[in-house]
């Protein structure tokens, strides 16, 4: 498709052409099984270990095992599997504890899973948020207790972009002897992540959110933390995840992490400038709009904007006519009639929540693209409001 203006990077990102070049030889030339004894496969394993090192360097997870490999990095099929594996491993590591504490704004990869644990008899507590999506720390302090096995708090929210103080949450968990997991799928590559202080026990990331390939992710497991595999089978990944390694995607993830590490400072500055230009342009040109989230602590690329009295889906389909891709709420809940659980948790009124659009930018976006959105959006909103039964000119 030509002339697409892609502002839906929290749903997925374009594979960086440099990343694509790096992974290409592993389809038709170096296709050996990384776990094979012969050198055709064995030489591929060396590349897998190099990718593991590249991931560890981005996370500052610089612990080495006897082979000089970053053994804290476990390759998985993506963020969802990593989240599931972390919860399962923590509950298995502390079987006498029967409580899970997480937040009400997590991705469904966590929320749906903890609901299943609640059905199985675990006590599950969801930390609420205020109108800006900030966590209720008093609630967290009260609920994280000696019966808690795992506390899971996302590093950054996929819908509103809030960045949370996960190290503070990890300390609360550890004070009570609980393990701590963070879903950093939206944070890695967009904000600095430094695990060298050993405060985080588990961290999830996903390749396709940082210009890598789809179907690959990582679960960081701090050295010394007991880990029970979620996927059992062969001895791949040091016996921690069965299944033939997805070599091209692993190579892609390593490269994507290396690029993110080297370009992060520059990228963050450029992204926040574009995001601010987009937001201030919208707020200036269109009445009765609200920017959601915590302006003091959020991702540089995410802007969640509520337009009163119209439907987000209608805005999206009109933007689509101009080749502009965005999202209403999170991609995973698009299509459902309910406003997103995040906006509901924040208490955003229904008339605004229904008209919420998430613009999520990447390094491939340009100022011209932002200008195009600002050129067409005011007319789209005016048109939709003119036919909305809920809209009254104030
Ligand atoms: N966690 C968060 C915060 C996400 O935004 C997503 C994807 O949207 C996931 C987890 C799931 O990641 P994956 O698509 O790699 O399974």
Tell me what you see in this structure.
The chain is α/β, with parallel strands linked by helices and 394 residues long. The protein folds into two domains: 132 residues, Aspartate Aminotransferase, domain 1 (Alpha-Beta Complex); 243 residues, Aspartate Aminotransferase, domain 2, CATH 3.40.640. It is built from 13 helices and twelve strands. The strands form three sheets. The chain has a seven-stranded mixed sheet with strand order 2-8-7-6-5-3-4, sandwiched between helices. Strands 9-10-12 form a three-stranded antiparallel sheet. A two-stranded parallel ribbon has the order 1-11. Strand 5, helix 7 and strand 6 form a beta-alpha-beta unit. About 1% of the residues have low confidence. Bound molecules: pyridoxal-5'-phosphate. Pyridoxal-5'-phosphate (PLP) binds next to helix 4.
SS element count, helices: 13
Helix-strand string: EHHHEHEHEHEHEEEHHEEHEHHEH
Question: What is the helix content?
Answer: 40-55%
CATH architecture field of the largest domain = 3-Layer(aba) Sandwich
Biggest beta sheet attributes: 7 strands, mixed
The CATH fourth-level homologous superfamily of the largest domain: Type I PLP-dependent aspartate aminotransferase-like (Major domain)
How many structural domains in the coordinates? 2
**Judging from the principal axes of the Cα atoms, what is the shape?**
globular
Number of E-type strands: 12
- CATH hierarchy class name of the largest domain: Alpha Beta
Which structural class fits the helix and strand makeup? alpha/beta
CATH fold naming of the largest domain: Aspartate Aminotransferase, domain 2
What is the mean predicted local confidence, pLDDT? 95
Taken as a percent bin, the fraction of beta residues is 5-15%
The rounded Rg comes to 22 Å
